[in-house]
Every structure is written in C-alpha cells, then in structure tokens.
User: Fold these one by one.
Assistant:
Number 1:
Amino acid sequence: MSDTAPPERLCVHESIDEKVPIESFVNTLDDLSVPVEIVGDDASFNETDVITSYRPRDGFLDAGWVHCIRAGYDEFDTQAYEDAGTPLTNSTGIHGTTVSELVIGYMLMFARRHHVYRDKQTRHQWYEPSYDRPFTVEGESACVIGLGTIGRGIATRANTLGVDIVGVRRSNESVPGVSTVYSPDSLQKAINDVRFVILAVPDTPETEDLISTAELQCMRSDAYVINVARGSVVDEDALISALEDDIIAGAGLDVFRTEPLPESSPLWDFEEVIVSPHQGSTTNQYHRDLAELTKEIFRQHQSGEPLRNRVV
C-alpha cells in the first residue's frame, strides 16, 4: 500500500464524539479538498480513504492513512499497522498550553489552599488555614519529568511565576527555563529537594511505575506529585501509602490506571489530592486544535511529504 495514495475521502469516526463535539470538528475541516464524512463501525475503507478517530477499529488497516486524535496511541496495534503498511499518526505536540495551564492551576491551588476553601464552602464553613499552610509558588522549585511539548510548556509558565525548574530527559540538551537537566538515571537526585514533582512523560515500558515507593520516600515531606502523563507512570498503591503516612504532602492527578477512577479508590478521600477526570487537554476550542493538526497532516499525506507525528 502506498503511503501517498491520492486521498478521495476523509472519514471521521464517530468515536471522536467521545472527546469533542463531532459536528464542530467536522465543520472545522470544511476547507479540505475532499469530502468529509462521519462514519461508524460498519464502514469499510480502501487506500483512497483517510481516517481520523479516537478509538481503533480493525477495518482502519485498509485505509491509506489513520490519524489518532489522542497523543496516547497505546490502544492502536502499531505492529498491525506496520504489517499492513498503513501510516498511523497521533496528536502529540498541540497540548503545550492546555495541559500546562492545568498543572499551573494545581500548583496555585495547593499553594493558596483554593481546593480546601471550595470544600469548606460546600459545607458553609468559614475556614482559616493555619499560618504555616499557604505559600507562594514564587521562590519554590519543581522537577518536570519529560521535557517534550507539554513539559516545556509547564517549564515556561512555571518559570514566569518565579519557580525554579529542573528537568529529567534522556537528552542532556538544555531547555529554556530549565536550570538543570538530569538523566533518567538521576531521577531520585532530581526530585529529592523540590516542592513539585511533575510528570509529563509518554507511556512506555521504561516509564511504568516511574514514581513508586523509593522515589516517594526520597521526596520532601511537603512535596506534591502532579501527574498529567499516564496513570501507569505512578504506582498508585505506593502513592496512596505515601499519602496515608504523610511521606508527601499531596497530589494533583489528571490520569489514572483505571478510568473513570473507581468510586472505591482511596484517592477520592484525601483533602490534599485533587482529582480531575483526564481533562488536561480539554477546552472549548479543542476541536479546532485537533482539526488544524488533522488538516496539516492531511495535506502532507496528499502531497507525499513526511507525515508529522508519524508513529508507524
């Protein structure tokens, strides 16, 4: 199958409606040179079709190119795409603003106690924290683990608030706004004296349980874990134990091993844990962000150029 078979139709799989309003997404694609069609699981495809989808389907392998609107493509069988010769792309690289703003929100909430004020408000309770609890993020430190688009966005925004940023990445290349870059082998050294440990790494075998008992125990007792990467990156049992034993101060979590987070999870019940339902990238303009990336890669496919964000 040719990577550059002339596309005749862009198929928008109905699963996209799980993430963004599908009609809004389709309307933003109206300037493409081919028809845009919403398709369901019963649709069939050939190499002149290109597909954008939230979920994988077996029939997609017959298409000329498939685009996953998520940054995480772990549900897609990459070996099957490679065997079929079907290009697969993802939506990494467009979340630097949205996800980093969520992280900054977590940091400010923990620092200025907004999460507790809101909890007390729902109970009509006037609450004044002890003098030593509120703090400013200015003058604090954070370690950003993973310095891709999201990690760099976090570093830039936190740095403007006066937070000293160190980072962890495989390359030792310097990053604007990051004072020190550590290798993954020096992870514990990187996180042992910062107020915020922020995870922005992809889900890979190497990042499974990246933060577990040993890492949590080497952190400061007033430190917070913030995870906007994937649930698998943090050992949840170890995190719960660390919170129960006051090993760390708290956690801001947008991703979990099981989503939705089960009602039985102890993570719901900690005052110093903020739970958000995997919404780091979601804004009322997210459909436009996804559509603009889709159009960019579509035109590359159409002209036979290398595809941005190609996974396979």
Number 2:
Amino acid sequence: MKRIRLGFANLIIEFTDRYLALKRIEYWANRGTGFPKVVYGPEGCGKTAWLRQSVELLGERGFDVIYLNPIEEEFAIEIGVQSLRDRLINLVREATSRLSWGGVAWSVIDVVREAISLGRGKIAIIIDDAFQAIGLDRAAIYVKGLLGILEHPPRPYERIVTIVATSEGVSRREIGRHEWADLLAMWNMGRDGFRQLYEQVPGDKPPFEEVWKLTGGNPRILERLYENNWNGDAVVRELIDKKGVRAFIASLGPNDRELLIRALEDPDVLMGREGIPLMNRLIELNLALEIPEWRDDNLWIDAPPPERDLELGIGKYVAWQSPLHREAVKRALGMT
C-alpha cells in the first residue's frame, strides 16, 4: 500500500503507524460493513490521517470512494460514473462558496443509492467530522440514512464500507441510544508509532520522553508544540482560550470545583452519580472523553490505551484528551 503524505504544521510528513486500524479497513474491504462504523476519539488523535490513508487503501482494492471532510473543506470523489462524480464535485464547490456543507453530506446518500442502481458494486463512504455541519441533533438520523443504504439498497451490491468519524463525545451518546451503528473508539498513538512521527519532526527538540508526557501520543498536540517552538505554556494558553476553560471554571459551584480538582489526579472519580454532570460538561468542551472500560479489540479501532495511566490522565472509564488538556484545566483553576 502506498503511504500518503500529510501536512503537519508547515511540513510534509509520511503517514505512520495505525497498523491495526488499517488491518481493520482491509477486513471491511473483504467483507463489507453490515452497519455504519462510527469512530470517535480525542481531537487530533489521528482519525483524519487514518481515514485519508484508508481512501488510498480502498481505492487500490477497486472501490469507488467518497471521502468528505466538511470541517477542513476537503474531499475525494472517485466514482466510476462520471455524471455522479461531477454532481458531487459541483455540490462541494457550491458548499465551499456558501460555507454550507451539511447539504453535501446528505447528498452523498442519494448519490450512493444512484451509483448502486447503476451497477456499482464496491463503494466506500467515508464521512469525517461531519456532525458539526449536519447538526449534532441530527447525527443519529444521518447514521440511520447510511444504514438504509446497507439494509435497503436499490439493487444487490458486492460490498459497501461505511465509516463516520467524530471528535464530538456528545454525538457518541446520541448515536449510541439507537441500534443503527457500531461504535468504535480510537485513542492517541501508541508510544512506538508516536516515536516514528516524532522522529519526522526536524530540528532541535526536547527528548522524546518529555514530549510523550506532554502529548500522551496526540499528534495535534505535537504539531502545536512544534509550531510554538516547543513552548508547552503557549499551547496550554491556547487551549484555555479556545475552549473557554476559565468561563467553565467560573461557572462551577464549590462541590463541582472540588470534584474537578480530584479528577485532575484520577479522571475515574467522574464516573459516579455526583460526577457525571461534570463529566458531561468536560465532554461537551472536548477536554475529556468517556471511553470503553474494556480494552477488547472489538471496541477499539486501533490499540487501546492502558487500563489506567494516571500520569497521562487515563482512567478505566474516563480520560483527559491529552496531558495538556488536563494542564489547561489545572492552570485555569490556579493550581500552577
């Protein structure tokens, strides 16, 4: 398989690692997906890079591929029916000019159904972080629309692969209420794969172990550190500002504030009657994430995190999205 090259800060790097996640794509390419696969995980953990590499893999295996990323305004459309390809490309161009991608995401369902009607037998639909464009309140309905392609096609097909990725922990809850999709978690990169990425970053840099403890294997945090000349304080300030952490802290009562302080040491304290409302707010801000307590392969799209690694902010049930996300909360609490 050809390894794609990706933008990283002002660099071009080669896709690395995610061996198990790519093996999962190969498995689906051979069997198809009976349900849409909804993949969720921390912001910047590498979902988009994996999906772009998956586009390459599925294309090499003869699939018509539709890849749509409304947030980054990127797409790839390789359909063996020129009229359908042109239609989607025109819709994307119109969406770009109007800053409205939600309609394009819905149009993908109609285009795929028509492609099946015209005899296209191997199709891959990859929707990357589209729920913000569609509306989080409509995420589950969109997934049901994708399921309708699989269960009620206009004619028999050979294989269809359907993947939707999201960084929105809230949408996971909404989708999980229904039996319309399989939910799979992706975590930050493992130590060995992250080291390969770290080694592609040029110039003087802190030792690997220091970078690992700051990022927890999150490629986006590595990118932000590189862009800020390895100044972790600058990245923490960016997180506090972007996510409105100070306003969030100011809104807390004494009990929630004390619970949050405890969660800095062990995020699993949030998995309880008193902690769940606070956990939900952290999930809404994309600071923390509820994760499967089981580290079974069938619940994870790649290697799962350890069951507990409190140094990196990982519990059995709840984890901070990265050590610097946790540090942003700690800083806003005035603890450093």
Number 3:
Amino acid sequence: MERAEVSMYKKIRRRIIGTMLAFLCGLAWLGTAPASEAGVPILVYHRFADSVNDSMTVRVSTFETQLRFLQEHGYHIVPLRAAVEWLRNPNAVLPAKPVVITVDDGHRSVFEKLLPIVLRDRFPVTLFIYPSAISNASYALTWDQLRALKQTGWFDIQSHTYWHPNFNTERKHRSAADYLQFVRWQLDASRRRIESETGAHVDMLAWPFGIVDDELMVLASQQGYVAAFTLQARPAERHAPLLALPRFLMVDAYGPNALAHLLGETTTRKAP
C-alpha cells in the first residue's frame, strides 16, 4: 500500500486498541452467554510472517498460539458465509462458540504461511482482496495462487473493492455524481474481476479502512452485496446492519491472555 494508506491503518489500529482497552475495563459482555447468543466474533488478519515487520503483521507463532487457544476453549471456526446466514435467518443454527477467520488485502503470506496451517488443521478462511494488486504488486498473491487456494475448498474469495481507496478522501475530491460513479465502479469491477478469474461467487465486501456510511451501504446493496464488514471491535449480532458488520482487528500482541479478554473468557487454560 502507499504511505498514506499505511498511516491510515496505524490510526485505525490505535483507535481500535484504545476502544478495546476501555471496553474491557468496564464490561464482560461475551463471557456471560454462549457466543451463538451474544454474537459471532469475526477476526480479521492481514499478513503473516516469522517476525513482526509492521503493525498489520501477525507472527506465525502467535497465530498458532491463537489457534490452540480457540481449540482448548471449545471454539468452532465456521465459514463466514455460515455466520452471515445465521445473522440473516432466525432459523439458522451455528455450533456453540463459533468464530470466523478472515484475511484482508491478499498478501502473498496467505499462500506461503497460512495455507500450510489451514491444510493441516482444516478450517475455513475468507479472503477479502482488491484485484488491482493481484499479480501486480510484489507483496500480493497471484491469480494462480488464488485459484489454488480456492481449489483446496477451505478458502472463500471476496471483495475488498478494486484498489482499496479511502472513500472519505475520494468524496472530498470528487463531485457528488463522480463520487457515486467511482464507488459503484470500485464495487462492481472488483466483483466481476474476482468472479472471472477464480469462479468464486462474490457477494460479500470488506470496507477499505473500515470506512462505511449509509450512502455506501445503499450503493453496496445496489451492487448485489449481501454483507459487508468494518473494523469495529465487537461481535456480529443479529440486529446489526448486514452491510456494516463488525470485526476484531487481530495484531501480534494478542497472546492467550489478551485473546481471552477479547473473547470474554474469564480464565485461560495452561498448555499441557
């Protein structure tokens, strides 16, 4: 990403972590009820590596620890699409303590670092990608790699717009009509390119930088998206707007104790 986008991510990360800390000091909303009643935690990652290269990178060792925590505490990793169906349909059922794993941006570490873990442990992942980077940017996956990921049966590929714009900035610099046309193009072009390259059915969207408002939700609905996701730090509940569903931004600092607090667990279990 460009420097401005990295700066925006850092600001969002500081705001989200600050909100989490204040929230955890005063509430324990999720520890008092099964996750399927209180909501579904949707986790969002960006990059995986052996060392922390930036604020969006989670070490493989940290991710492995987080997976062990989820397993030891009875969580079930469910497909994002199943969680969305549960949110949309009062008759839909999820297992006790569901959790969803998503990954934004389409970084090559998904293929190099995450794929072997997914194949070993067999859990579903939803990728939100922006096509302008795929097979172009040095940090990004290729279309061949995305097709290979989809063929495993464990990866669903969805839209992160076409080139990951900041819609607040674009609105300021464009006329009202031009802005609407720009947003529609970002949503439509991304969906069409992903579907044509991978064969995936694209009807879910991750808002770049988590930025969303009523107008953007209307435009996403008009473009055929049934669910879209922000970076707000709380579980997704049935009364939440489907085109502004929250996700927890995952960082390398979330070891077992921090993850326990994040998910509302009162205690952690010692590893054998």
